[in-house]
Amino acid sequence: xxxxxxxxxxxxxxxxxxxxxxxxxxxxxxxxxxxxxxxxxxxxxxxxxxxxxxxxxxxxxxxxxxxxxxxxxxxxxxxxxxxxxxxxxxxxxxxxxxxxxxxxxxxxxxxxxxxxxxxxxxxxxxxxxxxxxxxxxxxxxxxxxxxxxxxxxxxxxxxxxxxxxxxxxxxxxxxxxxxxxxxxxxxxxxxxxxxxxxxxxxxxxxxxxxxxxxxxxxxxxxxxxxxxxxxxxxxxxxxxxxxxxxxxxxxxxxxxxxxxxxxxxxxxxxxxxxxxxxxxxxxxxxxxxxxxxxxxxxxxxxxxxxxxxxxxxxxxxxxxxxxxxxxxxxxxxxxxxxxxxxxxxxxxxxxxxxxxxxxxxxxxxxxxxxxxxxxxxxxxxxxxxxxxxxx
Length: 391
Description:
The chain has helices spanning 3-9, 160-163, 209-212; strands at 11-18, 25-30, 42-47, 52-56, 62-66, 73-78, 85-90, 95-99, 109-111, 119-124, 130-135, 144-148, 165-169, 177-182, 189-194, 198-203, 213-218, 223-229, 235-240, 245-249, 260-264, 281-288, 293-299, 305-311, 314-321, 329-335, 340-345, 350-355, 360-363. It is mainly beta. It has a five-stranded mixed β-sheet with strand order 26-27-28-1-29. A four-stranded antiparallel β-sheet has the order 2-3-4-5, with no helix packed on it. Strands 6-7-8-9 form a four-stranded antiparallel β-sheet, with no helix packed on it. A hairpin with a 5-residue loop joins β18 (223-229) and β19.
């Protein structure tokens, strides 16, 4: 891994943003600096206060805020094809798109489906054309809902969004669809994970749900995160809410070779840590293309973070980060352009970690108290039911 690992080993807090109003930072998204956007240096953060904030990715200073969702905002994405378009997903049964050039404005588009649908995951395809949302369980069913971004009606057209649905998958999961992730380079390839313990991989170009379902993998627990990885982006990482780690080589599905590279129902025991350190949970993973490395971020409930290298069946500690967060970290982004790790968590802080930096605080210095665990569960979707199919 070479120079990137050297960078990780030298990381320290460069900037810290402590907001006035305490709230969890739930998800982060970086604007595509190669997309030709007029202001291509933004970081978006969604918070448990139902707000979405725009920050400078370099200084962390707040550039604006959006409000409009009536439920928890669980995810945020910039469109890969239109970097000035910001998309958000909420438990209120809507996805919204916003103009990143006009902070504080109303949504440009609102996406809805059945009134009974409450979403808990979403993603946008690599060409920016399709949005998919996963729903909570409705009766005995759960759904994957698809819209064409270009066909969605204006926000003021009540009901029009439902008429512009591309389609709905209803047979592949039997419980809350907790994560959906489009392939980074193949617009029709989609992976989904749910609390039923199943991870499904689809080729949307094949039409009907039965035809589109390429394979079903079993992670043995509720899926919390998915990440496409590997040199050819044909590996799929799955993290579970029970701290399991699973890695599958999907290129081997049609061969006689085993496709499971790593499968541990509790991978915390796989990582040797220095005395006194603990690994209580996994935040997520990301594929570092230039380094050829699958990076996993884990943490302790006290705020300590651990950068892990996932290679084959091994997890190796590269660096532990201390002196930043004081509570569970919920989300992170690796900014390859700026050489910075960006993290947000339940202490309300947004941190930027860079090699060889001395902390430069931004905004208020008072420590934010976390919102009550009764207001927002620390680890949602811990339940899972019997598995119905494995690959």
